[in-house]
Amino acid sequence: MNKYNFDELVNRKNTGSYKWNLLKEDELPMWVADMDFHVLPEIKEAILKRVEVDAFGYVECPEEYFESYKNWFKRNHDLDLDTRCMAFSIGVVASIDSILKHLVPPHSGVIIQSPVYHVFYHCIENNGHVVKENRLIDKDNYQIDFDNLESLLSDENNKAMILCNPHNPIGRIWSKEELKRIVDLCEKYDVLLISDEIHCDITEPGYKYNSILSVTDNAIALFAPTKAFNIASIKSSIAVCPDEAIKVKFLKGFGMDDIGEPNYIASPATIAAFTYGDEWNKEMREYIYNNKKYVVDFINKELPMLKVTDIKATYLLWVDISKVSNNSEAFIRHLRRQTGLFVSCGKQFGSGGEGHIRINLATSFANVKDACERLKQYILSII
Ligand SMILES: Cc1ncc(COP(=O)(O)O)c(C=O)c1O
């Protein structure tokens, strides 16, 4: 018997939600990466308790905040994190931005593995760095092109690499062997390794992700409760780096960029998530898995011209539509206009993204079934 009801959704219309704002009556948004589920009740209680005090001045980040990460990662990922290596940041993207700005010389190359979370491109380019893509090989649910990676890392103009672990949008959990090879190469060529691990708590039941910090002390790992607990707008994350010299440098940068202090509710919400969220997280992952299974079976049976990547992490399904369209922008626009289903366009995720769409499965099973019918209706109308 489940404790939480993920069939029952929050009505997010008129709440200022990116996803649910400005929609026509019958539209179904399955794009931006947040969830439609009710949050863990203890998170809401912690926020309500916090706002009972009628003064919202500056607040510190309590030791308990860092302890809650430490305990969560030990319990759920068998990872020992030292709270002295942690620094608060208002978000993973803000951390990446700041680290690139302060630790990576201007104009140098930053390596990412495309197709990948599109905001990495903005962080790199906005800071005057140059994007260097190591395109993933679209074979057996995507593989790393280690030869090309080594050739990029050996170029002395390339000074940093951002790893997406697990990887949005292709849903891969990188193995310890793959991580070790990346780490060895980054160390060999003295390239700063930043590992964005925001999706680590959304794995398929039975599958565990591997943190970069399980294979090296020589990297910066970025963690947050926001993606897995649907609290993205509370702005809470940490950067963890066992190497003291690197930590000191980025801490200074966080101060200069004013991203190193929490807002009023960030720490109580985070502590509640990491203290009381184990069962919620387990049931959420099972729910997402059932949603995924339904869509994958549906596509394989009804729409065999599409190809689904077998994601093992994230709630984002990566679908190859190249047999029916080589223009994902036009595809998602027409899909929305004709059926109301609104998904993400693959092209935005960089090279290797064109010819794909990304579907957000963090919604009710009823919505997922509805989305499948809408997708089928559209595909059948264009072939
Ligand atoms: C890989 C990845 N990193 C970072 C973020 C956003 O993190 P934050 O809201 O902490 O900036 C997202 C959001 O979708 C993401 O997919």
Comma- or semicolon-separated keywords:
single chain; 383 residues; Aspartate Aminotransferase, domain 1; Aspartate Aminotransferase, domain 2; seven-stranded mixed beta sheet; five-stranded mixed beta sheet; 12 strands; 14% strand; binds pyridoxal-5'-phosphate
What this model shows, in words?
By secondary structure, the chain is an alpha/beta fold. 38% of the residues lie in helices and 14% in strands. It contains eleven helices and twelve strands. It has a seven-stranded mixed beta sheet with strand order 2-8-7-6-5-3-4, with helices on both faces. The model has no long low-confidence stretch (mean pLDDT 97).
Write the layout of secondary structure elements.
Layout: E1 28-30, H1 41-50, H2 63-77, E2 86-89, H3 92-103, E3 109-112, H4 119-126, E4 130-133, H5 146-153, E5 158-164, H6 176-188, E6 192-196, E7 220-223, E8 237-240, H7 244-256, H8 266-276, H9 278-302, E9 307-308, E10 316-320, H10 328-339, E11 341-345, E12 356-360, H11 365-382
Helix pairs in contact: 1-8, 2-8, 3-4, 3-7, 5-6, 9-11, 10-11
Bound molecules: pyridoxal-5'-phosphate.
Pyridoxal-5'-phosphate is lined by residues 33, 91-93, 117, 164, 168, 196, 198, 224, 226, 232, 237.
